[in-house]
Amino acid sequence: MANSTHYDAGDIQVLEGLEAVRRRPGMYVGGTDTKALHHLIHEVVDNSIDEVLAGVCNYISVTIHPDESVTVKDNGRGIPTDIHPEKKISALQLVMTVLHAGGKFGGGSYKVSGGLHGVGVSAVNALSEWMEVTVHREGKVFFQRYERGIPKAPVKTIGTYTGEQTGTTTTFLFDRTIFKEDTGFKFDTLMQRFREMAFVTRGVTMKLVDERDDREITFHFEGGIESFARYLNRNRDLVSPTIYGEKEIDGIGIEYAVQYTDTYAESVYTFANTIHTSDGGTHLTGLRAAVTRCINDYAKKSGLIKEADGSFSGDDTREGMTAIVSIKHPDPQFESQTKVKLMNPEVQTYVQQVVMESMSAFLEENPSSAKAIIQKCLTSARARDAARKARDLVIRKSVLESMTLPGKLADCSERDPSKTELYIVEGDSAGGSAKQGRDRHFQAILSLRGKILNTERARLDKILGNREVKSLISAMGTGIGETFDLKGLRYGRIIIMTDADVDGSHIRTLLLTFFFRYMQPLIEEGHLYIAQPPLYRVSSRNQVHYAYNEAEKDQLVSKLGGMSKVSLSRYKGLGEMNPEQLWETTLNPEHRTLLLVTLDDAAEADRTFDMLMGALVPPRRRFIQTHAKEVRNLDTIG
Which of 7, 43, 84, 459 has CB 3.0 to 4.6 Å from 383, enough for a Cys bridge? Predict the structure, then answer.
């Protein structure tokens, strides 16, 4: 794109050096785990998004190469390459090698920026085995290579070009001596983030290419966050159309969209300068306060609720609400470098003002939609009251019974939660094997009979009446929903252990839905796991081996001399294993495989639950038709 704004070496300010990043990566990218690894890409992409926000870029591509190196390319102005007036080196080298060196501090080059701290790309450079940057600017192509943050040679001109093409291309390979988990980049995680960015940055084209398995996807949304709300609710029955508003106050751009559906959970997405602030902040507080006030004001004014009935609570007005709020701020204050919570106090007032104005107008102009929303809030208030009574009854009953544990629970003798684990097992036969095979000292077994309630399609009062759910709550000791308290957790690890077939998969899905909806801190703090029982027992002479998937089974059979030389048995369910086999393969900490459930996994699963278990049939049919070809052996899906 054409170079439309003044941006050169004089705009680059220097605040401090780089040496600490490699020793303390947690301070700059939030750690050295998979999340921090993905944060490296986000930091580089944020620089390109800043160019979009400045109005000088409309295309960003991200390519993951087979060796896990990544290329981020944009058509912005290109990082300045002329000599910095104070530091006497190329501005490009300064930006790439010095912490807090960037064009975002003086206010001239960027009106609004997502990469607020300016540590981003230099921190990525410091944490990379190598990085190469190519800049197209003023008719010349500039290049520099770095190894672990150190330039290998000065910035050099490697070519020329004609026309107005400008931009920056950055390629880096993360340093495996720092990111030791080495799980590599997840296409789906990046896809989700870029889709969100494209929604909140109307008009930008974002392309993600994965050369490891030949996948690519491109996002471009002219509808902005209104399109985002429609996308999020595509598999849900709507109670209202999208309520939308946008306005600029004191140089701060505010945009929001609210839509009500027939579900029971609240879905909220908040953004500051296109960055997803997953812990919310002042913009979210402002939006929630305004929504509750608007609905209460309209309900009373229109006579839909009486003064004597009191007001709806925030929980009542947010049930089934999908809300997105996006602000563009010239000086955003975040809680930390990883930018998960917005702190600017004035934003709360401004967001509240914008939402109050446009939402009040919407309710006045659309009385039938307004009535449907208020009816939803009334039902929610009644159900919440019923749930409170049911919960009190559950708690009171537990106290009366001296916190008696459910009969289906085979408890362990250890009382220190950091050393104990609870296996949730389906059915009595599997439960019997697990109880006999476990280590009674630290392993407890809770067997659930059949499928627990589909918590996606039921309110809390009904869920609390379900016997299996009551057993689960009672065994864990944490309470549920608003009264959930992690301090009461009786077992440090909660492990879902179900059969490797369709029924087992369904039960696991139902349990994950329940935990995601009503015990989310359990997942956030890393207490929830999924057990991996084997699919096959392969024996040859006096040796017994176990295979956990088809590929492992094929490898084992081949290694042991082919099908004629082995005895192969397939486990249809956990109940088919004797206690010793179950201990050896699935319960023994020295040999078992456990999958940790993360919030990202749960949120993605939540979207799938919503579609597979929600009220709408067409999306479910589409999903089944789309994925039918991927199914090889229906009873091995897990």
Answer: 459
